Amino acid sequence: MRHVTVRLSLEAPQFHPFVGELLADPVVSVQRVHRADLLDDGTLVVLAEGHGDRERFESIVGAADPVRECSLSGERTWYAYLSIDPTEFARTLMQTRRSSDVFVKWPISIVDQKTVEVTYVGHDSGFREKLAELPEAIDVEIVRTGTSYPDAAQLLEKLTERQREIFTVAVEQGYYADPRRATHQELADELYCSAANVGEHLRKIEATVFRELRALDGTPDLDGNDAASSVSDR
Asked: Which residues form the signal peptide (predicted)?
């Protein structure tokens, strides 16, 4: 498995005007985005980290029409949970991220008013396709590439929301303990589905996880592409 770190530069108003106002404000510093997801109802939810004047941050966000909800925790360094009605640009970008086999290694670092630094993790063959899918309005600069060894969070990124739920219950109920303490039927009773459905999901989960772990032995992809050469054509 490989990683490619890129700097993506774009005009903040393409997300929302209030984003540009936040990043330009002299008393508010938004440093990282720890998570961003597009929900099934079309809402964009974001967990961001920052420091500075919390009241100023809340004032800017509170006056922004697209923000449905904002909650903050912490003092000197604080975390903001935002629920937002996304622009079409932001929706397209998030849907592209969802559909790709290459995934984001969180957090995303905010470099300046127009630039963020993102690390993508995946197999060599996926990087060129991933960057080619980004909207043309985004300028891409490759910062570094290298070998990446997946941690638990990265592996779980490859699973669907339902697969993560089933995997969590399976671990909690002792399905992967030795000796095994739960059957497919017992997991099905907990998850309100059939034993056959649990078995199918677990097989897909295990296939995904073991495919990603296989990268740890340095086995190259069949096409033999190098990540750096793959993405440099954009």
From this structure: none
